[in-house]
Amino acid sequence: MQDAMQDVTREAMDYDVVIVGAGPAGLSAAIRLKQLDADLNVVVLEKGSEVGAHILSGAVLDPSGLDALIPDWKEKGAPLTVPVTEDRFYMLGEAGQIRVPNWPMPPLMNNHGNYIVSMGNVCRWMAEQAEALGVEIFPGMACSELVFGEAGEVLGVVAGEFGRNPDGTPGPNYEPGMELRGKYVFLAEGVRGSLSKQVIARYDLQKGHEPQKFGLGMKEIWEIDPARHRPGSVTHTMGWPLGSNAGGGSFIYHLDNNQVYVGFVVHLNYENPYLYPYMEFQRFKHHPMVAELLEGGKRVAYGARAISEGGYQSMPKMVAPGVALLGCSVGMVNVPRIKGNHNAMLSGKAAAEAAHAAIAAGRAGDELNDYETEVRTGAIGKDLKKVRNVKPLWSKFGLVASLAVGGFDMWTNTAGFSLLGTLKHGKTDAEATGLAADHKPIDYPKPDGRLSFDRLTNVAFSMTNHEENQPPHLRLVDPEVPIRVNLPRYAEPAQRYCPAGVYEVVQEEGREPRFVINFQNCVHCKTCDIKDPSQNINWVTPQGGDGPNYPNM
């Protein structure tokens, strides 16, 4: 495939700043650049069919990022219309629940002043603000390659390549795409972005930092009985059904129009390869408290996305010659708050200010060190530093200990110090996977089609579509590893960790088992790229416009 790609000649377009990804970080950067200098040429490239099509987040939004970027967002009609009115935490058992009181929690856990939002719709609104300032936004333009200069700096990206055959050769309607070059390139691809992954490896940006940690977030939108609907209500749970099998928890957010976001997060450092995160989510909805809420309602959308959970100590170096990593490309989620969108916006603003100053000084293609300094020492770093030990405590000592010790550590951090210092994460999530021989299979109830659903039925509610006559975007480093290594050692966990049913081990009578990749089902969550114990799966971008088409996730 690579040989077929080397003889391609492409046209090039030059910009001041090229931004990959129309999420909160990328759009914030674009807006801030044009606020600072209306004459800057700024382009945003988005792989989704439209802005917001690939955006999936809880989400309770802390508006501090938006306040800093567009102070008059209310007057401009930002879709933040459902303020949080109540905030509840529960510890679940199989048949009941115990409410955790709010008063012992550190002030940072308070959701007063936050909003329940669709981040997809927030990004659509932000794109309108950016375009009004003169930003060029091109959806359906997947960025498949980086362009490097002679000195090793990032010069730009290749975007808009279409029409390759499944074997990688140019098809009859092949379009080579274009090189979009910038004085600086911002990668705002979200968690585990394919270009960001290359930049981190090429420039060894993770050196000196802890490995990034991840969770898998799955979400459904439900329309429920109006009598049960409480606009502004926020509920988080921990405990059942995960128990000691994995860390994680749920969220239930009541937005407007009798709709509820029902979500479930499983930390990807779980050991048991038989764990089936999607089925844990489906089982969760049968808890009496949740089943009562959803009874008589209907699910209208489904999606899944990996979440960066490593926090302060896992953020890699964010800059290399000509390029900066923004938002979840770095990992800026505050894990106990389950919030990262505000930090993504602030990172975009900081990167824009650093690039503007550099361009004004006649610079290009160097490292935007002022951006990194602002992230680590400014509002983002202060937000993440306070909670840096919550995730490693949970991973090492379990839920109960992490609640007690982590809560104490967050309280002391509000005073500016921590008795624990900065704890380490240790293993990657792939390395955390245990051997099948050391664990027992888990018996999951069959979905009932009313509250719980099989994966393929739910994937249809993500409106996912991929052109089948293209190279699969899920690449195996060694095609033999799934059956030769992962199946005997780990019971091939790809069958279970994927929330979209992409991977199958097909066993036909009298024949050797086969590993099948149904890439058409992929919702771009990136879990396989993260959790595969052999690190044998490489997620690359499919053709632009392919993937999920989330309505208001």
Word description of this protein:
This protein has 553 residues and is of the alpha+beta class. Among the domains are: 2-73 and 120-192 and 321-331 and 338-372, FAD/NAD(P)-binding domain; 455-539, Alpha-Beta Plaits. The protein is 26% helix and 24% strand. The strands form 6 sheets. Strands 1, 2, 8, 9, 10, 13, 19 and 20 form an 8-stranded mixed beta sheet that branches. The protein has a 7-stranded mixed beta sheet with strand order 6-5-15-16-17-14-18, covered by helices on one side. Helix 2 runs parallel beside helix 4, helix 8 (341-360) packs antiparallel against helix 9 and helix 11 runs antiparallel to helix 12. The longest helix is centred in the middle third of the chain and has 20 residues, at 341-360. Mean pLDDT is 94; it is low at 1-5.
